[in-house]
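INTERNAL AUDIT FORM
Audit reference: QA-55
Scope: verify that the stored structure record matches its stored sequence.
Auditor: D.O.
Record contents follow.
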Amino acid sequence: MIPAVMPTYGRWDVEVDRGEGPYLYATDGRKFLDFTSGIAVTGLGHGHRHVVAALCEQANRLWHTSNLFRIPGQEELAQRLVDNSFADTVFFGNSGAEACELAIKIARKYQSETGHSERYRVIGCHGSFHGRTFATLAAAGNEAYLKGFGPPMEGFDHVAFGNLNEMRAAVGKETAAIMVEPIQGEGGVRAAPEGYLRGLRDIADEFGLALIYDEVQCGMGRTGKLFAHEWEGVAPDIMTIAKALGNGFPVGACLATERAAVGMVAGTHGSTFGGNPLAMAAGNAVLDMMLEPGFFEHVGATGQLLRGRLETFVRSYPKLFAELRGSGLLLGIRCIIPAADFVTKLRAHGLLTLTAGENVLRILPPLIVGEREIDEALDVMNKVAREWRA
């Protein structure tokens, strides 16, 4: 008999009761160090006082109207994102998948508005992940996620991540946009090689394409800057964010330049819940913290500390682990042993981590993590590795 909750997840045997900072507490009394951050969502940790206070204050005033009204918090958050990014305008939705859907729509609409209605195809990369809707599944092209749902939505092409020659060769008369993650999270914690984003920008400019970055997982401070692409200094035309933007409250956003959003006028897109007052209170509270002086410096320093500890860890067990990947506090270890089994063992010892493609152990601590928690995590990892080797 099917359970009341549709069984679409392989759930862990952990029933969470509450969270505090980098820790989760289960109903049976177990305590876990959470190096998943709700899959890169709770960047400020669990129960962050400023975010909770902002949500409570807003909840006592107004939860929802609709986008027929002006929403002050929405205008504030949009302006702050514009002021701290390449973008001129922002649309708020409820998830990363919704933001990616809109990014595709904006790219196609841009081509139509500028006299190229024949351009509708989007080139993505193997190993990418953009969401679970029909369009975003097709944009990623992952057969495992598409299986059983009929023919994938037409209009998407795929090339190897990091290969500019393949990208250039894939551009055709019907190509509208290029869509990439600066760091592939689900695909194996694979960072774009140096110069790749610059090369994509050059290809997009040469052929009149829109360049889309999906920073749903790698954005919002995860790499030590507000957005991951800032490290290379190459701006897109359109970008999607979500996850850590609300620190757990559902909110996503699609950012675009004025030029790219030329066709996005009244009636071209909408959302019932997107950008409601509660979501905007969460987003603004998150930005309050992330834009504080020293916040990203802390992320950078702890990212370097964790990376150094993990490099030593990987070298210490060459029969178990092959390489360390990623950037900032989005890190992954490609395993020789089954990564999922190692994650299970870590969880049994109180450390929560994730898997990713290519047999990778994915590590996503909250951005507020400190040296003490890093030491605690490495103690557990070394203990499990030693027992495994024995």
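Auditor finding: record pair retrieved intact. The two ends are 42 Å apart (CA to CA).
Action required: none
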